[in-house]
Write a structure and sequence with these properties.
Blueprint (H helix, E strand, L loop, with lengths): L5 H25 L1 E8 L7 E10 L5 E7 L5 E10 L2 E6 L3 E3 L3 E5 L4 E6 L10 E8 L3 E10 L11
Parallel strand pairs: 1-10
Antiparallel strand pairs: 1-2, 2-7, 2-8, 3-6, 3-9, 4-5, 4-8, 9-10
Length: 157
């Protein structure tokens, strides 16, 4: 037997689902990716790195959970860890993107590691990279390749 309240209950369920969908889409639109860059690599070097800033002006956090590009068979989120005067890279499968905050990917810190490059990253070129967020979903970005001596997106040497 169907209750007289069933249509009303169904309308509430649909409204709640739409609210979640709209808030997720709003989150996808509020995240900004800025200061994107990579350094040129030497021919034959199988690795490269990509740097950027993720700005989250919303009141809702998110997580960066993956990255992919056609330029390398493997792309991973990494962080450089300093310990006892030595530094090492550590794979970090999830990066928290706090609400109303910024996460900086830079040399000697967080970065995207490109592994298995078959062609060098050449100064002046651009390539596509997709950042995958838990809530905001995939975000394709264009990565300009700067000189091998660059230290930031402003072309500092």
């Amino acid at each position: 037997m169907i209750s007289a309240h069933a249509p009303r209950l169904m309308a509430l369920v649909v409204a709640a689902a739409m609210s979640v969908l709209v808030s997720t889409q709003a989150g996808a639109q509020t995240l900004r990716i800025e200061n994107v860059w990579a350094r040129a690599t030497a021919p034959g070097l199988p690795t490269g790195a990509v740097y950027f800033d993720i700005i989250n002006p919303s009141n809702r956090g998110d997580h960066l959970v993956g990255v992919r590009t056609e330029r390398a068979p493997r792309a991973e989120l990494h962080q450089t860890i300093e310990s006892g005067g030595n530094s090492r890279m550590q794979h970090t499968p999830r990066v928290r993107i706090p609400a109303n905050d910024r996460v900086h990917f830079a040399p000697a810190g967080r970065h995207v590691m490109l592994m298995g490059l078959t062609q060098a990253l050449t100064e002046g070129e651009q390539f596509s990279l997709t950042l995958v967020f838990e809530d905001a979903g995939p975000r394709p970005i264009s990565v300009p390749v700067l000189p091998p001596t660059a230290m930031s997106a402003d072309h500092s040497h």
